[in-house]
Amino acid sequence: MQLQPIAATPTRIDSPVTDAEAGALARATVNLFRAWDLTDAEARTLLGGMAARTWARWKDGGIGRIDRDLRMRMAHLMGIHKGLRYLFKDPARGYAWVRKPNAAFDGSSALDIMLRGELSDLALMREWLDAERGAW
């Protein structure tokens, strides 16, 4: 019996976020980080360790190429923002909540959790917020 070749699996998976959507996400992310009153270092950490020069360009409106990981990070951040907007009718309360110690996180803030820097930390926070609002 001779083995039959099988078709190779593509090694590149296209992002579910288009280039145009990624640009819009980047602009929205800059605005969100302003609302959350993040430092540049905090913002860069949430964006996966973005270089300081790249972040400075983003703040000035110069958005370049955005890789898949960064697109997913921003999608999770927008999901977190959306969850907070559902939970808090007053946007300022939601923005402030991000920094407040929380018993659900053993006294850490949501930002503390997200600043651990992994994509999974953003996903975890998004899932937690989705579960909180889903319980209603």
Q: Strand fraction band?
A: under 5%
Average pLDDT, rounded to a whole number, is: 90
Number of strands: 0
Reported for the largest beta sheet, the result is: none
The Cα radius of gyration reads: 18 Å
Helix content: 55-70%
Task: Label the overall shape.
Answer: globular
Structural class: mainly alpha
Low confidence ranges: none
* Distance from first to last alpha carbon: 60 Å
The helix/strand series, from N terminus to C terminus, equals HHHHHHH
Query: How many individual helices?
Result: 7
Overall tally of domains = 1
Would you give an account of this structure?
The protein has seven helices and no strands. It has one domain (19-134). The protein has helices at 19-35, 40-46, 52-59, 68-87, 91-97, 110-114, 119-134. With 136 residues, the chain is mainly α.
